[in-house]
Design goal:
By secondary structure, the chain is mostly beta strands. The protein has no helices and 45 strands.
Length: 478
């Protein structure tokens, strides 16, 4: 609901899960308890007092539904909650991050520690349940997150902070001092923990990163080296986020005419992204239009990034993307496997521009990613900035890059659950499991070859090669 005018008074107030309440003028007086509900079906209620005033004589309670068997990055939306919020809900202690210490993570093992509403915490929930934040009033007005450091030996400058409000929060509205324009979320929406990145200067994002920080969400920021940072929010930065209510929907963005390249690396199960774009206001050197790569260090997730000088970047903004420009592409995996690299977004590139992936670890093999080709390769555990690069090549321009390896082929699963290869005769093929184990291989003897040795349900990578040309495809047998 939206409360405005001279005022409104009630005994108790409960805002149902997924609903929104706004006070735009006057005073809402609750002569009792105020509760913002949350459940698995409808999400979490949100509340904004921007222009109006809330008065609660009883307790203020904010619920958050959390599921089991995962870590939740959380923050308190009330002023005086304690670690008792998680009593009997946490299998392991509650953690918070201390950037300046070698160990970095500290534990809260009691139920009486005050939760700083501007600090991010990690809690491990041992069953599906609603956690209720209570203690003091709902946070409102100007909130300053100060004392952010950049002195740690590892993950230097990264601080875990929280959304202090019981509402969504716009990162682009923050006033920053010695803090970069990027935020990072730790998300498990795909089954494994991945890092989502969002940059408010250029508006770019990877892995689904977003400008709107959910209520009770902890997120990462990065402080300028050797400096102490701070972030200031106020009520004008607060939002609801219910797409079923037209007035709450985000306004349609202006047409984006910027050159954009989004690259994805995958092991067939989990994936990661790197974003490259051109913006007239960006510099070709490291600036606010760039977002550092925050490494996940999860054996189940390969990672990809670009390299600019000494910086490893998840989002890389240039003033322009020029003909024959070469960008170093970093790749990291902590487990040996078979991987693929492809371009999932190519936007506003000139019609005659090709995006070429170069693999120096495979005799400078080139793959034209422009038309949807997927490059497949195997790798042991490594973190390299020297193996891969991408080149923007204009057709007809002579360069020292002369090879191509796009093979005209198709791989699919037929009605009899057979992997079927449509490719030229005498083409070499190898079938890998999703974990990179070689399962089958041979040479095609006709234009259509069935792999009869693999029938078990699962995800497979098929790699083809013939006369220096390559092709790879991911298929699923159900």
């Amino acid at each position: 609901g939206n409360y405005s005018g001279a005022g409104f008074e009630c005994l108790d107030l409960t805002v149902n899960a997924g609903k929104q309440t706004t006070i735009s003028s006057g005073t809402l007086t609750v002569n009792g308890n105020m509760t913002l509900k949350s459940d698995a079906t409808n999400g979490t209620a949100t509340f904004i007092d921007n222009g109006g005033t809330l008065s609660v004589t009883g307790a203020s309670k904010v619920e958050q539904y959390l599921t089991t068997t995962r870590n939740w990055y959380v923050a308190s939306p009330v002023g005086a909650a304690t670690s008792n919020v998680f009593a009997a809900s946490v299998a392991n202690p509650v953690y918070y991050y201390v950037e300046t210490t070698p160990n970095a993570w500290s534990q809260i093992t009691n139920t009486s520690t005050n939760l700083d509403a501007k600090k991010g915490y990690i809690a491990n929930i041992n069953s599906n349940k609603v956690v209720t934040f209570t203690g003091g009033s709902l946070n409102t007005g100007e909130q300053t997150i100060s004392g952010l450091t950049s002195g740690g030996a590892t993950s230097t400058g990264f601080n875990l902070v929280g959304n202090p409000y019981p509402s969504y929060l716009s990162w682009s509205g923050a006033t920053l001092s010695n803090v970069g324009t990027s935020i990072w979320y730790k998300s498990k929406s795909t089954g494994a923990y991945v890092l989502q990145t969002y940059n408010s200067a250029g508006g770019g994002a990877t892995n689904g990163g977003t400008n709107l920080i959910p209520p009770m969400q902890a997120y990462w920021v990065k402080v300028t080296a050797g400096q102490t940072g701070s972030i200031v929010f106020d009520n004008t930065d607060r939002n609801h986020n219910d797409q079923s209510v037209a007035t709450n929907r985000l306004k349609a963005p202006a047409q984006d005419t910027r050159k954009t390249v989004r690259l994805q690396v995958s092991n067939g199960i989990n994936a990661d992204e790197a974003l490259i774009y051109a913006d007239d206001n960006a510099l070709d050197t490291y600036d606010t239009y760039d977002s550092n790569k925050m490494f996940n260090n999860n054996a189940a997730v390969p990672e990809i990034y670009t390299v600019l000088g000494n910086e490893k970047l998840a989002i890389n903004g240039f003033g322009n993307l020029s003909d024959n420009q070469t960008i170093a592409l970093g790749f990291k995996t902590t487990a040996a496997n078979t991987f693929t690299i492809k371009a999932t977004e190519l936007k506003n590139l000139p019609a005659n521009t090709k995006l070429i992936l170069v693999d120096k670890g495979d005799n400078d093999t080139e793959t034209d990613l422009t038309e949807g080709a997927v490059y497949s390769f195997s790798s042991d555990a490594e973190n390299t900035i020297s193996r891969f690069s991408i080149v923007f090549r204009v057709s007809g321009i002579t360069t020292n890059l002369t090879k191509t390896n796009v093979l005209d082929a198709q791989v699919f699963v037929n009605a009899f659950n057979q992997i079927t290869i449509v490719a030229p005769e005498k083409c070499n093929y190898i079938v890998y499991s999703a974990l990179g184990q070689k399962l089958s291989g041979g040479i095609t003897v006709s234009n259509r070859t069935m792999v009869n040795t693999i029938r078990q349900a699962g995800v497979y990578i098929v790699k083809l090669s013939e006369s220096g040309q390559n092709f790879s495809s991911r298929v699923i047998i159900k």
